[in-house]
Specification:
mainly alpha, 108 residues
Length: 108
């Protein structure tokens, strides 16, 4: 992990953990490629979220123009958050790796 450019006046140190070691290699471009809203929305649709999503589109005749991709992506993220709250971060992490990152082509 890179050192801070200036010392912290309260002598705090950044949190480090072995599982975070690969994060500097995850560039902004790679993250955008993997977690692109269109790709995650397609995955959410594959899991059937489009059929159970309670959402009122602004333009009922134009779901894409109304933001269906964002709504589906946010629903997927909300499910991950709910799993994390109910079952803990370890279970949520496993579900994300197996059910989201894996199908999106990211080996995690």
């Amino acid at each position: 992990m890179p050192e801070p450019t200036q010392p912290d006046e309260w002598h705090r140190e950044p949190f480090t953990h072995p599982s975070l070691a690969g994060l500097p290699g995850l560039t902004k471009e790679r993250k955008q490629l993997v977690l692109n809203k269109k790709r995650t929305a397609q995955l959410a649709e594959k899991y059937g979220l489009g059929g159970v999503l309670r959402w009122k589109p602004k333009l009922p005749g134009n779901l894409e123009g109304s933001g269906i991709d964002i709504a589906l992506t946010q629903a997927l993220y909300a499910i991950v958050g709910a799993i994390s709250l109910q079952r803990g971060g370890e279970v949520a992490n496993r579900i994300v790796r197996e059910r989201i990152l894996g199908p999106l082509g990211l080996k995690a």
